[in-house]
Design a protein that fits this description.
With 168 residues, this protein is α+β, with helices and mostly antiparallel strands. The protein has a single domain, classed as Thiol Ester Dehydrase, Chain A. The chain has a 5-stranded antiparallel beta sheet. A hairpin with a 5-residue loop joins β4 and β5. It is elongated and about 60 Å long. The chain starts with 18 loop residues before the first strand and ends with a helix.
């Protein structure tokens, strides 16, 4: 199944210092329980009474659930309209405050570094820092990592040239 996408953002659109704010994801109790039941079945993510007795004082989302929600906000905020080619990984990930059902999360992305990839000049690397915060402005997660984006110059050469260069 092929999905047509409009590409609005290439590597050149992510200069150092560039910031974007996006999101508005409200966390539901049902989503917390469903994610925890499948991926992180610790008692404070699944059981209200155990959660009340925990360090968190109530049912809270898994940090991995928070990271997944941040990824969804990034996709909806810009990645699905970008020439994203994936990521070689995350360098830092911190969960700084619990996320509770009813919280509404937003994300801020800031570009820390940008450079062409040495081995594949049609690809640009972007190092970013993401901060996820709740409706009170409390930072609940931070993350730093790299993304790979097709360069606009390579896109102008036609898909075949860029694809052939990527395969080399």
């Amino acid at each position: 199944m092929s999905t047509e996408r409009t590409i609005r953002h290439y590597w050149e659109d992510f200069p150092v210092g560039h910031r974007m704010d996006f999101g508005g994801q409200t966390v539901t109790r049902e989503a917390v329980l469903a994610f925890a039941g499948q991926f992180d079945p610790q008692p404070f993510h699944l059981d209200e009474e155990a959660a009340r007795r925990s360090l968190f004082g109530g049912l809270c989302a898994s940090g991995w659930h928070t990271a997944s929600m941040a990824m969804r906000m990034m996709c909806d905020g810009y990645l699905l309209e970008s020439a994203s080619m994936g990521s070689p990984g995350i360098d830092n990930l911190r969960w700084t405050a619990p996320v509770f059902p009813g919280d509404t999360l937003r994300t801020r992305m800031e570009v820390l570094a940008a450079r062409p990839m040495n081995s594949k000049p049609h690809v640009g690397l972007v190092q970013s820092r993401w901060e996820v915060y709740n409706q009170h402005g409390t930072t609940v997660m931070t993350m730093e990592g790299w993304g790979m984006f097709k360069r606009r110059e390579a896109a102008g050469q036609g898909a075949g040239a860029a694809d052939a260069a990527g395969a080399a």
